[in-house]
Amino acid sequence: MQGENAQKAETPLIDPFGRSIEYLRVSVTDRCDFRCVYCMTEHMTFLPKKDLLSLEELDRLCAAFVRRGVRKLRITGGEPLVRRNILWLFRALGRHLDSGALDELTLTTNASQLEKYASELYGVGVRRINVSLDTLDPQKFKAVTRWGDLTTVLRGVDAAEKAGIRVKFNAVALKGINENEIEDLIRFAHGRGADLTLIETMPLGDIGDDRTDQYLPLSIVRARLMERLTLEESPYRTGGPARYVTVKETGGRLGFITPLTHNFCESCNRVRVTCTGQLYMCLGQEDVADLRAPLRASPDDALLDAAIVEAISRKPKGHDFIIDRRTKKPAVSRHMSVTGG
Ligand code: SAM
Ligand code: SF4
Prior knowledge:
The protein has one domain: TIM Barrel, CATH 3.20.20. Helices cover 31% and strands 16% of the residues. The chain has helices at 2-7, 55-67, 86-99, 114-123, 138-145, 150-163, 182-191, 218-226, 292-297, 302-312, 336-339; strands at 23-27, 72-76, 104-109, 128-132, 166-172, 196-199, 231-233, 243-247, 253-257, 270-273, 278-280, 288-290. A 12-stranded mixed beta sheet has the order 7-8-9-6-5-4-3-2-1-10-11-12. The longest helix has 14 residues, at 86-99.
């Protein structure tokens, strides 16, 4: 049944605002081998394993979206590469690249396990990945990630590049932590021929600390960079929220993702599924559709398909992020590690 479905193209997913949904992000686990300060508390309670979609269910779910026109799949988490047997899922999803239904299969990773997996990921068709790297200082790296080791991460990045996978770096701008290091990160990434994207902290999930302490507006980062570097507006777009400049001195590309100060919803072509099969039509809204129940109700995909179509008909026009400076509560209560970045 699934085999037959996989061959059959179905009506594309177009939301009420005419945006066609071509990009799916899938979180495969809420667990992680790091505890980044802006993402998790040190003693996170993770979901019971039975609540997570199995790898087979994740494969069925992705196939249902691919049949309806999704052309780009990003696997994320938590840390996707700590999920047991994750290569099985990548291999299974690679068949959509082979058939031409999918343009890109990619992942966002902290790179801690990349040395082990890089060549196999290349083997199943992964050609580009996003690596999160907030600092190049080993002590700060430990302080930000709590459990991470910079040397292991850099070895992972080397392994990916050696395998033929292009790396794009993401760094969250953090007040008092990496704010004096942004230029070093730019030179590091561009020196390797890689793009760097800076991200503002987003108010997602309770992380125990005062989030307003970490918040560093990218408008400030940008103004400071412009005192030292020449930033030229770039027309480059990925269909995502980043806006790019070219750094004249390095020749490399620098992206800015500013969800709190900028609206990027008009061109949004993406939806997200959590590791428990909850479909979020917008990162900044609470509305959600459960895809796990229809997945588990029947081995046939009819219920799943109907649930996906119904959910996309509810995709909202835009988001509503704010850090409430009085209550200091996040605008959206779930963690980034649940929805995936
Ligand atoms: N563990 C992988 C990683 O770190 O790349 C994938 C999942 S992680 C949740 C995805 C991205 O979300 C990372 O680049 C991380 O820096 C970012 N992120 C996590 N919490 C965030 C927050 N509160 N605000 C902004 N970005 C956040
Ligand atoms: Fe883990 Fe990524 Fe969250 Fe850091 S940002 S704790 S690496 S999921």
